[in-house]
Amino acid sequence: MAAGGEAHSPLEQFEITRLVDLNLGGVDISFTNSALWMVIIVALSTLFFVIATSRAAIVPGRLQSIAELSYEFVAGLLRDNAGKEGMKYFPFVFTIFIFVLMANMLGMVPYSFTVTSHLAVTATMSLIIILGITVLGLVKHGFGFFHVFLPSGVPMWLAPLLIVIEVISYLTRPVSLAVRLFANMMAGHTTLKVFAGFVVALGVAGVVPLLFVVALTALEVLIAFLQAYIFTILTCIYLHDAFHPHH
Amino acid sequence: MRLGVEFVSGFVVGGLIGWALDRWFGTRPWFMVVFFLLGAAAGTVNLIRAARRLQAEAEASEEQNSSTRG
Questions:
Q1: Which secondary structure element, helix H or strand E, spans residue B26, and what is its range?
Q2: What residues form the membrane-spanning segments (chain A) (predicted)?
Q3: Chain B contact set for A180 (CB, 8 A)
Q4: Distance in angstroms (rounded) separating the CA atoms of residues A131 and A173
Q5: How many angstroms separate the Cα of B58 from the Cα of each of A82, A229, B14?
């Protein structure tokens, strides 16, 4: 069977292992490898921005330019998609972008764990985002926020049907937000591992899948960035609805 | 991938709502049938909106390119 005697499943990389067993009132809150990587992500990105902005110069150095570029990038996204009011929530959106980007990119490091390849993580993030935006919209507009569910200029007899469809459409937002990120990361990493398995199994002919793996790795880096971008831009677009419930 | 998820999630959410309502009222399978169809409609609405957004983005970047060139 597999060379080396050990059979590694391409799905083994997604396994959750407990590092420290913790139990709080019957709830299992063990510190897992997933939690460890999330801590690493937060620590690394905090460290990076602290160092990058510690010696702020008018002519930015290399690190400072990266920090400034990422600021400009997210600020532009937010301004274009959520409008000026959205800039108030820049810290939130920026944190989301950096967290997802770091999670995806660190996932590309061999032997690391890709946090965003778990639906539990992405679903939690998207639920927090959508619930937060809904609460924000209700606070800002009160009952007027429900205009989201009724496009203007709709004949009255169509309204009941359209409201149901719009409500379902609204409820799909957390689902699509979470599933898109999770599915992309999971599928990409599984494909990489499957092709890497071919390299070993095919011996000399393994050069062909090896070339594939190299190309796929480059593609995965692109996808890691692209998915962080899409996650952020959709957050901005949904945030826009909280400020302007009228379509 | 981006558009596919938008579309399919409509079906999934519609189906789930119908399934839950059926369990609640014991009316299997009627709510599920109705909400599956409504979910399909919602998925289509999502799809159209996402496609429009993509098109607007593409047009915006095209305009930007032509304005910087010209």
A1: none
A2: 35-58, 89-113, 119-139, 146-172, 192-214, 221-240
A3: 1-2, 5
A4: 11
A5: 18, 16, 31
Task: Please give the average pLDDT of every successive group of 10 residues along chain B, which has 70 residues.
Answer: 85 93 91 93 92 88 72
A67-93: b (≥16 Cβ within 10 Å) or e: beebeeebeebbeebbeeebeebeebb
* Average pLDDT over all residues of chain A: 89
**Residue A114 phi, psi (nearest 5):** -90, 105
Q: How confident is the model at residue A1 (pLDDT cuts 50, 70, 90)?
A: very low
Q: Which amino acid is at A159?
A: A
Give dist(CA B1, CA B6) in Å, integer.
9
Q: pTM to 2 decimals?
A: 0.88
**Among A residues 175-194, those touching chain B with beta carbons less than 8 Å apart:** 175-176, 179-180, 183-184
Q: What is the reported pLDDT for A28?
A: 84
Q: How do residues A171-202 score in pLDDT, each as one tens digit?
A: 999 999 999 999 999 999 999 999 988 898 88
Name the residue ranges covered by the structural domains of chain A.
Answer: 16-243
Closest-CA residue of chain B to A227:
B2
Q: Where are the alpha helices (DSSP H) in B1-70?
A: 2-25, 30-69
Distance between A174 CA and the closest CA of chain B, angstroms: 9
The shortest C-alpha distance from A31 to chain B (Å) reads 32
